[in-house]
Amino acid sequence: MKKLILIIFIAVTLNAQERSLNLEESLRIGMTNSKELKISRSKLNYTDSKITEIRSQFLPQFKLTGNYTRLSDNIPPFEVSMPFAPLPIRISDPIINIYSVRFGFSQPIFTGFRLSSLKNSADLNLRASEYDYSKDEIEKAFNVFTAFWNFYKTGEIKKAIKQNLDQMEKHLRDTKVFYDNGLVSTNDLLKLEVQRSNTKLMLLEAENNFNLARIMFNKAVGLELTANTSVTVDEKILEESDFELAEISAEAFASRNELKSLSKRIEASEKGISAAKSYWLPSVYLNGNYYYSNPNPRFQPARNKFDSNWDLSVSLNWDVWNWGFTSSQVLQAEETKIQLEITLEQIKESIQAEVYSNYLTFLKSSEKLNLSRLMLTQAKENYRVTVEKYNVQLATSTELIDAETLKLQAETNLKTSEVDYQIAKVSLEKSIGRPIPK
């Protein structure tokens, strides 16, 4: 019993251990565990198998068939009546059990370029699916990236509020000493106590936000929602970047996987038109068969034994008139191409607007980050001066509370600005078509 309790205790302890992940590890685990990418990979494999299916149609198709037939017993023999013979001459007795085996092949020689068009179309669709998979990879990485930084932000805000609360507890202890010596009023002491209570509520809310952000992070990387995780950030990641609008717009048109994928699908639709037009042309096949039958109908008169024979033929099939079936197929293929071309133009317009919007957001977040740093520097200096004055009773508790509030707000604003900047930068890079940085 004691051993069982010890094992359970060790298991619970190990499960409760915190798992710390950096950005690179988070992206690697998230990409490995992603169900969305597994579905996308399955679609890619499906498209790849389509090429094998079409390639097989270029090769001869072999078929083996067998058949057994049992006839009724009342089948008469094969007899011929002659003028000079009083009785009919029996040529052969009825064969009640009939066996046949046929092994044949069919080799396409010319299909109106249908097979070659379908193969080229499948190759292009495979390339398009590869670009779609790359796009899904970037989307998944961006989701992990965003969840990582939001988790980091809530942790840093919680830490800042906790530090502020610790400083407030110290000031409250000092204020109680001042109060006992008659240096501050009851109102000043109550103000600090109320502020401490408000800060505790802020800390509680920050802890709730932190726990929710952890759940979203765990979900993004594919871990258990209740896993005890944390994130670590390399300060180099926080380095700033510069972008030129004209350059990144041109890069987006050249790099976005959506455009590459759709371009390949437009090329594939052209091959689809050629495949549809192939039905206006004849198809030529080489056919061959080997027969092993009892009785073999090629041998006369019929005899109750297995005989073999073979044949080789060339067949031509041509739909001379099919009531507009081929024309409809061609029209459908042409309309599909038109739809894809219009969709391509729409996506180009959307990408241009997306890049411009993200560029403006990036500029705003960069300015906000610089301003937040300046405000924090000023708030820290104001807090230092106010604390010194308060300690010698040259500042009131209201001024101290205002200084603490200003510093805490500046600290949380800076962490929020840092994360907003990182997300804005990567959003812009994603809209350009660049991979998510690790």
Main pleated-sheet profile: 4 strands, antiparallel
What is the number of beta strands?
8
In N-to-C order, the SSE pattern is HEHHEEEEHHEHHEEHH
Strand content: 5-15%
Structural class determined from secondary elements: alpha+beta
Assign a percent range to the helix content: 55-70%
Give the N-terminus to C-terminus distance in angstroms.
48 Å
Poorly predicted runs of 5 or more residues: 1-14
| Separate helix tally | 9
Please state the overall shape, judged from the principal axes of the Cα atoms: elongated
The largest sheet has its strands arranged as 2-5-7-8
Please, could you describe this protein's structure?
The protein is an alpha+beta fold and 438 residues long. The chain has helices at residues 2-16, 23-33, 35-56, 114-180, 186-221, 245-255, 257-277, 325-391, 397-432; strands at 19-21, 61-70, 78-80, 89-92, 97-110, 229-231, 283-294, 307-317. The strands form 3 sheets. A 4-stranded antiparallel β-sheet has the order 2-5-7-8, with no helix packed on it. Strands 1-6 form a two-stranded parallel sheet. α2 (23-33) crosses α4 (114-180), α4 packs antiparallel against α5 (186-221) and α4 (114-180) runs antiparallel to α9.
